[in-house]
Amino acid sequence: MKRIRNFSIIAHIDHGKSTLADRLLEFTGAVNLGGKMGQILDSMDLEKERGITIKAHAVRLKYKAEDGNEYILNLIDTPGHVDFSYEVSRSLACCEGSLLVVDATQGVEAQTVANAYLAIDHNHEIIPVINKIDLPQADPERVKKQIEDILGIDSSEAILASAKEGIGTKEILEAVVKKIPPPKGDPQAPLRAMIFDSWFDNYLGVIILVRVFDGIIKPGMKIRLMATQKEYEVQRLGILTPFPKDIEQLSAGEVGFIIAGIKNISDTKIGDTVTAVESPAQQPLPGFREVKPMVFCGLYPVETNQYEELKSSLEKLRLNDSSFFFEPETSAALGFGFRCGFLGLLHMEIIKERLEREFNLSLISTAPTVRYKIVDKKGEYLIDNPSKIPKIYERIEEPFMKVSIIVPEEFVGEILKLCQERRGIQKEFSFISKDRILLVYEMPLNEILWDFYDKLKSLSKGYASMDYEFIGYRASDLVKLDILINGEQVDALSVIVHKDKAYYKARAIVQKLRTVIPRQLFEVVIQAAIGSKIIARESIAPLKKNVLAKCYGGDVTRKKKLLEKQKEGKKRMKQIGRVEIPQEAFLSVLKIE
Ligand code: GDP
Ligand code: MG
């Protein structure tokens, strides 16, 4: 055990985590990249080797250090987005230290702070690495000072590196060996191994990645997953180099994969503890939590006959992602579809994109919403669809987040205004360097879904960075805003808004809908209502002529083109009553000025 080091790389996006990981793999001879950086840890299905789908989220490297000894270095990858912060925390829990990569031209950003705090929470030995020193704008001294001032991490021995040019690679590996402590643990104690990743392989079933804390695991052993109480027999054990290699045992302190004939990925929860059926551990490892979706939307096929296809595609995606949720839902406006739940906005985008790209589905999605807590006569319960809010209730509570923003001073005025508009409660305002400010707000998640990130980026010319975490439910003065089209309420367009903003939002939504709904052969009236009270109204004048009338019948290609264009446009239209409504309309409620 004293020659093992378990570590991860943490960074703000684009600061060079993947490039550095590739460098470390190359330097230690794990792979030959032939000069081109392949982003090995990022590829989902790296390739098929000996029939195993590889997800290189933990790589075992061999490194011969300057002290003459050979060390085993386990590099555990962490997901790079705030939506997956629980997964990040589990990966960090499996390591004793981390490399904190900071871009020498950008300095400390919001995710640098969030990730560094997570690593500090896990008592990590943190090695600062200042990357991209090859760039002319690099200012390592300034970045060192930021690391000390903002994070309170000693940066006097920060390593200056260029992952691109391979500068500092050896120094980084030496620091990993010298500074990060070896794992502790008792190989004689009952087995306790933490699951930090899992995926589904068509031939082998679920493959889980674990860090063994106590005990030894061997093929043939009966294991129990403590959170789900499911039992399996270990068929194969191995390590990723990054290519899979079978081994005879994994002992306390080690990292590797287990194949145990597991069929269902939802049995293998991230953060759960694997123990032995014979002489099981008394207590699971700390920190396990059931992950819950935070953001919901309805997904409907444009063509009703694609419903079954959508269902089977969702099932296939779920095989590999147990953090995403779906159940059948019917909408009066959109027909049969699914209510889907995601960890966050990015997670939602990823799933939607995969459904469209990989499964070739054409979908209508409703505006994302959070899960509200309703308190009424029936008690307390959560709803994930605005159309399900009861008429009478005692109060509504909504999820609140702690939002941390780092912004250059010149843009701070605009950002403060934005946060205030979004019902943010300021908790901190501090200079982290001469010209950059850290803002901390408590803000409803609902307000973040409404275009917050895009606004933050555009108001700061791209310079602001942000991170957020869930802090709890709080009561708010919320109302349901319904949209009626030619007198018919469209359930899929209902949104929940704060009472103070209801009039303004109602007006903005109907105006926006007026621009995205194409003219029809009759007048279209768009109204917004709270309960039975109409608070905004717009109308779309009827079309005067048939579009084809313009083509005189002479120009056949032009006519064809027009018809095709119409068909294209129809692809994402839904017929509601007599009115055709494009996909854009369902999301337009989010994108209002
Ligand atoms: P990640 O998001 O942290 O994984 O960042 P990547 O490793 O994907 O790097 C982001 C971008 O920065 C890519 O275009 C890299 O080629 C580039 N990059 C990474 N390291 C360096 C470096 O040391 N110097 C320079 N000039 N560019 C780098
Ligand atoms: Mg990356």
TrEMBL record:
**Membrane topology of this protein:** Peripheral membrane protein
Q: Name one GO biological process term.
A: positive regulation of translation
This enzyme catalyses: GTP + H2O = GDP + phosphate + H(+)
Q: Gene3D superfamilies, per this entry? A: 3.30.70.240, Elongation factor 4, C-terminal domain, Elongation Factor G (Translational Gtpase), domain 3, P-loop containing nucleotide triphosphate hydrolases, Translation factors
Task: Give the enzyme's EC designation.
Answer: 3.6.5.n1
Which residues bind GTP per the record? 14-19, 131-134
Q: Which GO terms describe its cellular component?
A: plasma membrane
Give the Tr-type G domain ranges: 2-184
Q: Which Pfam families match?
A: EFG_C (PF00679), GTP_EFTU (PF00009), GTP_EFTU_D2 (PF03144), LepA_C (PF06421)
Function statement: Required for accurate and efficient protein synthesis under certain stress conditions. May act as a fidelity factor of the translation reaction, by catalyzing a one-codon backward translocation of tRNAs on improperly translocated ribosomes. Back-translocation proceeds from a post-translocation (POST) complex to a pre-translocation (PRE) complex, thus giving elongation factor G a second chance to translocate the tRNAs correctly. Binds to ribosomes in a GTP-dependent manner.
Name used for this protein in its record: Elongation factor 4
Query: What's the source species for this entry?
Result: Thermodesulfovibrio aggregans
The opening ranks of the lineage are: Bacteria, Pseudomonadati, Nitrospirota, Thermodesulfovibrionia, Thermodesulfovibrionales
